[in-house]
């Protein structure tokens, strides 16, 4: 019976990996998409004592100190942000960041702080004629003072300097907030729509351009987008491996089932 549960856990892990690889391939053209990667671990192992396989009529015993595995599971889905390039678009509402650990700061409809690499923003007009800078999913892009970025009524275009400072018609507006999250693969989790939330234990992130007149080393690039880092060759290889993994464990379950059928037919 344990062989069935072990095989089932492996099928679940393989299915999860297939979904992860398929998601990477599906986002080959998505702006600022970071490649997702699965990690696997053994489930609890069971220590079998000397009597575990030794009924009174058996001529064999379990060897001392034997540990039997109980399966495998997909323990963590990590996103990798390294290796992303830049694409020039010339669109004044497209923005990119220069470093792997830099993220635009967003606020969703529930007030939750989110982070993203995707800087393909747009203006959402309000009833009073002003407009807010938002993502394609409608999340508000945050300024360094923690407020939504608002563009005054009648402004048709904006200019943004390398430290995130917005200007229009000779006037100075808000500044686009940029957060530095060290080791983002460890401290950020995907929440969909190419957005990320912090996990428990995230050290206080640095709003890198919050100091007046200082860019703190960041570079906001207007008219550029951060490309994804999906390597289609690697993903297709991983897809084949995951499929083989799934099929192998399906066969193992089938063999275990046949052995159990044979065992049921044995008469004492």
TrEMBL record:
Q: Give GO terms for biological process.
A: bacterial-type flagellum-dependent swarming motility
Compartments where located: Bacterial flagellum basal body
Outline the extent of the Flagellar hook protein FlgE/F/G-like D1 domain. 102-168
Repeat among keywords? no
Would you say which domain of life the source belongs to? Bacteria
Q: Which Pfam families match?
A: Flg_bb_rod (PF00460), Flg_bbr_C (PF06429), LlgE_F_G_D1 (PF22692)
Flagellar basal body rod protein N-terminal domain location, by residue? 6-33
Kindly give the SUPFAM superfamilies that the UniProt entry links to this protein: Flagellar hook protein flgE
This protein's GO cellular component annotations are: bacterial-type flagellum basal body
Please provide the record's keywords in A-Z order: Bacterial flagellum
Q: Does the keyword rRNA-binding apply?
A: no
Residue span, Flagellar basal-body/hook protein C-terminal domain: 222-265
Q: What start-end ranges are recorded for coiled-coil regions in this protein?
A: none
Among PANTHER family, the record links this protein to: FLAGELLAR BASAL-BODY ROD PROTEIN FLGG, FLAGELLAR PROTEIN
Give the family from UniProt. Belongs to the flagella basal body rod proteins family.
| Protein name as it appears in the record | Uncharacterized protein
What organism does the record attribute this protein to? Alicyclobacillus ferrooxydans
């Amino acid at each position: 019976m344990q062989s069935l549960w072990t095989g089932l856990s492996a099928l679940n892990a393989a299915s999860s990996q297939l979904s992860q690889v398929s998601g990477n391939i599906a986002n080959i053209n998505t702006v600022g998409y970071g490649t997702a990667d699965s990690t696997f671990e053994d489930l609890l192992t069971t220590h079998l004592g000397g009597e575990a396989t030794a009924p009174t009529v058996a001529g064999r015993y379990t060897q001392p100190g034997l540990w039997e595995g109980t399966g495998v599971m997909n323990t963590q889905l990590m996103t990798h942000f390294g290796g992303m390039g830049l694409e020039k678009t010339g669109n004044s509402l497209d923005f990119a960041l220069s470093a792997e650990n830099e993220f635009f700061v967003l606020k969703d409809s529930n007030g939750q702080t989110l982070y993203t690499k995707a800087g393909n923003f747009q203006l959402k007009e309000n009833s009073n004629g002003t407009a807010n800078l938002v993502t394609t999913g409608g999340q508000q892009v945050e300024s360094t003072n923690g407020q939504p970025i608002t563009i005054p009524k009648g402004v048709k275009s904006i200019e943004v300097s390398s430290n995130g400072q917005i200007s229009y018609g000779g006037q100075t507006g808000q500044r686009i907030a940029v957060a530095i999250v060290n080791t983002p693969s460890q401290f950020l989790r995907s929440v969909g729509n190419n957005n990320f939330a912090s996990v428990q234990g995230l050290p206080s992130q640095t709003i890198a351009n919050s100091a007046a007149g200082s860019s703190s080393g960041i570079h906001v690039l207007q008219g550029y987008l951060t490309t994804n880092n999906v390597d289609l060759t690697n993903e297709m290889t991983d897809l084949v491996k995951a499929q083989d993994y799934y099929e192998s464990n399906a066969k193992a379950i089938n063999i275990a089932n046949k052995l159990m059928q044979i065992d049921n037919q044995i008469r004492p």
